UniProtKB/TrEMBL annotation:
Protein name as annotated: Cadherin 16
Domain Cadherin per the UniProt entry, residue ranges: 21-129, 171-239, 240-352, 354-467, 468-568
Secretion signal span: 1-18
Membrane-traversing stretches: 687-708
Domain of life from the UniProt record: Eukaryota
Any one GO biological process: cell migration
Keyword Signal: yes
SMART domains: CA
Compartments, record wording: Membrane
Organism: Mandrillus leucophaeus (Drill)
Gene Ontology CC: adherens junction; catenin complex
Keywords: Calcium, Cell adhesion, Glycoprotein, Membrane, Repeat, Signal, Transmembrane, Transmembrane helix
GO molecular function, one term: beta-catenin binding
């Protein structure tokens, strides 16, 4: 067998023997390339264990990669991201390695030399051409790497893609394409593509090149070349049609899958042009809010819930960007829309708007069926089925006195009375009403607002007061003075209850009534009243303990002609004494005992203080019965002295005036009056006693002065007498 050498110029990566170090790859790229980017240059055959490592692209000697080059980790292609200019840099020396995370090299380094070809030499197209030498041993072609050709390549056709040469002999070449494709080979072994390729029509071809002698005999088995048509990124990703809204229950945990997008790209399957990644455009995170409501997996297109919780009733439109070329610059993109509807769950327990109602007062005679109170509860859930409530009396109604009444779809419940109330049995009730959701509750249980307490106070029912008459009448002369007693209003049962009286419709102000005793008096002179006229007022009586219980009866006053005014005959009244400051003592005043009518028992008599304002201010007169009255001090302090109080006594048309003599004095602890003591006859007064004492002291003083003066003068005289004048003692 004659040895031969094959020279192959192609755009593919030469085969590297598994046992040997990868040989340097040489790739050419035209400068100022006007096609789409990124432009895929060549594919590296990485080992199977490459999935466990990371592809690293660097410059010569491990430096950072020069120029706009990158590696596609999914396909293993070396690519350039922009057009290159030969004047700036003519070639780039790159190294590709496969390393683990701890920087251990699994494969490589694979040196790659990228040359920038001048614009004037475009015949070879955009694919760089590398020259490799492959030997043929015993007429056997060495297998070659596939040839990668870009679709829709804008070059002059036919376009050379490789050259086959059989050294040492004169041969002819014959080409077969499976399937039939636009390829040809000339006599020199140049392999051409005759027109643009389209991946949609055919993505790969199998070419066989035969070497024949002049007799048409084959020298060896055909050289098989695998041609792969590189897809051009000329198709936009197509999003799936927008379907109905995706329902997501409220409170779904983070990571719950909402939907999975699957955009389609008409470019060649498995190529970078059809490698689609996804990016979430909206909704965006709000300022000051941590976390996102949605997340999208860039590779799988799975849309999941984020950490930010969603609220029931929200309708959210998700915008997801689908990008080919794995999201690299220069690729196409489409916006996918996904409508998400957050559905409600029964996660809110119903609560009362008011937890305390009352106290509500009810009389014990209220009829059963009466509405006691209306309670309102609310539920924050949106679904009508989750807002259905059930009410019950939890405690405070052991004997079934109360009951609840509500509509199934209403949040209002009425507390009604079922039985008669009894003040003696229970003067008050505290009814606790609880509300629950009809549907099963999801999440935390009911809060403190799920109960409401209604306080009911039972009022004792008492009959209204009743007077001893249903109608009162009295006659009074028009000349009756102020304070004249007309009549006394009394209850029918004065022992069981006390009443408080008042007058209504007393338009003229002629009458007054004692609140406690019920005595009706004239409040002033009956000026303007005419004999024969009547004057009607209402007497209202209220229960002292239960002011709401009251009754009223008419009082008709008949005015009589005034009789001739009798002369007032003052009746002498013995002197009495009262203590000041006021004590619980008084003076009993009786009618004129000498009066024949009174003596014969013709009564009753009315008593009134005289018209003197000072007397009416200082004194108080209260009628005891038809014949006696009780006189007391009206003020706490009255001047201690003898007072004469005029008291007017009237009976029918007759009037008498009594002059009551009362001595007001200071009293001791025993209530006995301490009167002022007068000076006794023959006893000196205080002034005379003081005069006598002072005169005596003055006389004594004068006497002492005279004695002292005399003693002083005599002593001075003795001191002035000469010595020889002193008499000698006589000798006996």
């Amino acid at each position: 067998m004659v040895p031969a050498w094959l020279w192959l110029l192609c755009v593919s990566v030469p085969q590297a023997l598994p046992e040997a170090q990868p040989a340097e790859l040489s790739v050419e790229i035209p400068e100022n390339y006007g096609g789409n980017f990124p432009l895929y240059l060549t594919k590296l055959l990485l080992p199977r264990e490459g999935a466990e490592g990371q592809i690293m692209l660097s410059g010569d000697s491990g430096k950072a990669a020069q120029g706009p080059f990158a590696m596609d980790p999914d396909s293993g292609f070396l690519l350039v991201t922009r057009a290159l200019d030969r004047e700036e840099q003519a070639e780039y020396q790159l190294q590709v390695t496969l390393e683990t995370q701890d920087r251990r090299v699994l494969w490589g380094p694979q040196p790659v030399l990228v040359r920038v070809k001048d614009e004037n030499d475009q015949a070879s197209g955009h694919q760089a051409i590398a020259t490799v030498e492959v030997s043929i041993i015993e007429s056997t072609w060495v297998p070659l790497e596939p040839i990668h050709l870009a679709e829709n390549l804008k070059v002059l056709y036919p376009h050379r893609i490789a050259q086959v040469h059989w050294s040492g002999v004169d041969v002819h070449y014959r080409l077969e394409s499976h399937p039939l494709g636009p390829f040809d080979v000339d006599a020199e072994g140049n392999l051409y593509v005759t027109r643009e390729l389209d991946t949609e029509a055919q993505a790969e071809y199998m070419l066989q090149v035969w070497a024949q002698n002049s007799r048409g005999e084959d020298y060896a088995a055909p050289l098989e070349l695998h041609v792969l048509v590189m897809d051009e990124n000329d198709n936009t990703p197509v999003c799936p049609p927008r379907g109905p809204a995706v329902s997501i229950p409220e409170l779904s945990p983070p990571g719950t899958e909402v939907t999975r997008l699957s955009a389609e790209d008409a470019d060649a399957p498995g190529s970078p042009n059809s490698h689609i990644v996804y990016q979430l455009l909206s909704p965006e995170s709000e300022d000051g809010v941590e976390g996102k409501a949605f997340q999208v997996d860039p590779t799988s297109g799975s849309v999941t819930l984020g950490a930010l919780p969603l609220q029931a009733g929200q309708n959210i439109l998700l915008l997801v960007l689908a990008m080919d070329l794995a999201g690299a610059e220069g690729g196409f993109s489409s916006t996918c829309e996904v409508e998400v509807e957050v559905t409600d769950i029964n996660d809110h327990a119903p609560e009362f708007t008011t937890s305390q109602i009352g106290p509500i007062s009810l009389p014990e005679d209220v009829e059963p069926g009466t509405l006691v109170a209306m309670l309102t509860a609310t539920d924050a859930d949106l679904e009508p089925a989750f807002r259905l409530m059930d009410f019950a009396i939890e405690r405070g109604d052991m004997d079934g006195t109360f009951d609840l009444d509500w509509e199934p779809d209403s949040g209002h419940v009425g507390l009604r009375l079922c039985k008669n109330l009894s003040y003696e049995a229970a003067p008050s009730h505290k009814v606790v009403v609880v509300v629950r959701s009809v549907a099963e509750l999801v999440g935390p249980g009911p809060g403190p607002g799920a109960t409401a307490t209604v306080t009911v106070l039972v009022e004792r029912v008492m009959p209204p007061p009743k007077l001893d008459q249903e109608r009162y009448e009295a006659s009074v002369p028009i000349s009756a003075p102020a304070g004249s007693l007309l009549l006394t209003i009394q209850p029918s049962d004065p022992i069981s209850r006390s009443l408080r009286f008042s007058l209504v419709n007393d338009s003229e102000g002629w009458l007054c009534i004692e609140k406690v005793s019920g005595e009706v008096h004239t409040a002033q002179s009956l000026q303007g009243a005419q004999p024969g006229d009547t004057y009607t007022v209402l007497v209202e009586a209220q229960d002292t303990d239960e002011p709401r219980l009251s009754t009223s009866v008419p009082l008709v006053i008949h005015f009589l002609k005034a009789p001739p005014a009798p002369a007032l005959t003052p009746a002498p009244v013995p002197s009495r004494y009262l203590c000041t400051p006021r004590q619980d003592h008084g003076v009993i005043v009786s009618g004129p005992s000498k009066d024949s009518d009174l003596a014969s028992g013709h009564g009753p008599y009315s008593f009134a203080l005289g018209p003197n304002p000072t007397v009416q201010r200082d004194w108080r007169l209260q009628t005891l019965n038809g014949s006696h009255a009780y006189l007391t001090l009206a003020l706490h302090w009255v001047e201690p002295r003898e007072h004469i109080i005029p008291v007017v006594v009237s009976h029918n048309a007759q009037m008498w005036q009594l002059l009551v003599r009362v001595i007001v004095c200071r009293c001791n602890v025993e209530g006995q009056c301490m009167r002022k003591v007068g000076r006794m006859k023959g006893m000196p007064t205080k002034l005379s006693a003081v005069g006598i004492l002072v005169g005596t002291l003055v006389a004594i003083g004068i006497f002492l002065i005279l004695i002292f003066t005399h003693w002083t003068l005599s002593r001075k005289k003795d001191l002035n007498q000469p010595a020889d004048s002193v008499p000698l003692k006589a000798t006996v």
